[in-house]
Amino acid sequence: MEQPGSGSIGASGRARHVVVFVHGRDRPGIVAGIAGVLARVNANILDISQTVMRGVFTMAMIVDLGAARVGVGELRRLLEEEARRLGVEVSVHSIEVVRYMERP
Fold first, then answer.
1. Residue 48 in this model has a pLDDT that exceeds 70
2. Which residues pair with 57 in a beta bridge?
3. Does the pLDDT at position 41 exceed 60?
4. Is 43 helix (H, G, I), strand (E, B) or coil?
5. Which of 5, 58, 69, 88 could connect to 24 by a Cys-Cys bridge, CB 3.0–4.6 Å?
6. Do the strands 56-64 and 17-25 form a parallel or antiparallel pair, or are they unpaired?
7. Which has more pLDDT, 4 or 79?
8. Which region among 7-21, 34-48, 87-101 has the lowest average model confidence (pLDDT)?
9. Percentage above 70 pLDDT, the chain
10. Domains of the chain
C-alpha cells in the first residue's frame, strides 16, 4: 500500500509506484522469476495478490521504484524478457494510470 504522504512520482520526475500485472498458464517459478527481476534492480514489492483460476495464473503487484536502479521503461523491458522465458504475459503501468482507469 502507498504510504501516507508519499507521492506516486519521485523526486527524479519518474513514476515511483507502478502496478505489475502478470497472467498466463500456471507453472512453477512465475512468482520467483518476476520477484527476482524486481530484487535485482532494487525495486520493493509493497503489495501482491495472486490466484490461479482453472489453470490460469494471475498476479498483481504494487511496486515502489524509489530506490530502484532503473526507470519504468527499463523495468518493463526486463520483466517482459523474464515473462517470455516463463511463458506468461506482463504489463507495467504507473499507479496513476491504473487509478485513472478505475474511476467511475
1. yes
2. 24, 52
3. yes
4. coil
5. 88
6. antiparallel
7. 79
8. 7-21
9. 78
10. 17-101 (3.30.70.260)
Tell me the three cell numbers of residue 70: 532503473
**At residue 77, what is the residue type?**
R
pLDDT of residue 103: 61
Q: Is the distance from CB of 67 to CB of 42 less than 8 angstroms?
A: yes
Is residue 14 pLDDT above 80, yes or no?
no
Name the residue type at position 96: E
> For residues 74 and 87, what is the distance between their CA atoms, to the nearest angstrom?
20
Identify any residues that bridge with 15 across adjacent strands, giving them in sequence order. Answer: 9
Q: Which long-range contacts (CB under 8 A, 24 or more apart) does 81-84 make?
A: 82/33, 82/34, 82/36, 82/37, 83/22, 83/24, 83/34
Q: What is the DSSP string of 5-28?
A: T--SB-TTSSBSEEEEEEEEE--T
